[in-house]
Design brief:
One of its GO terms (molecular function) is transmembrane transporter activity. One of its GO terms (biological process) is xenobiotic detoxification by transmembrane export across the plasma membrane. With 104 residues, the chain is mainly α. It is 84% helix and 0% strand. The longest helix has 24 residues.
């Protein structure tokens, strides 16, 4: 169950990171409220997951999911470059997340 909570927390981290772009510096109310809610929910779920998961593993996986999700959505939503090197680096992060999941 902790891993599911951690996955959802990581997805929410991706959501709030992307949401920051839409807040336009917290000048737009609806995106700002949604972004702040995603931030809070993400951290709360991370904290709950860390009751049973090692903090180093949990935090690394949480930030990894957020980094990968944000990088992919940046490519898809904002036309950021999808170079081979960038895709390879995303793959390395995914490999690290998987390694942490299966190693501990």
């Amino acid at each position: 169950m902790a891993w599911i909570l951690l996955l959802v927390a990581g997805l929410l981290e991706t959501g709030w990171a992307i949401g920051l772009k839409y807040t336009e510096g917290f000048t737009k109310i609806v995106p700002s409220v949604l972004t702040l809610a995603a931030m809070a929910a993400s951290v709360v779920l991370l904290a709950i997951a860390l009751r049973t998961l090692p903090v180093g593993t949990g935090y690394a996986v949480w930030t990894g999911i957020g980094a990968v999700g944000t990088a992919i959505l940046g490519i898809v939503l904002f036309g950021e470059p999808a170079t081979a090197a960038r895709i390879a680096c995303i793959g390395l992060i995914v490999a690290g997340i998987a390694g942490l999941k299966f190693a501990g």
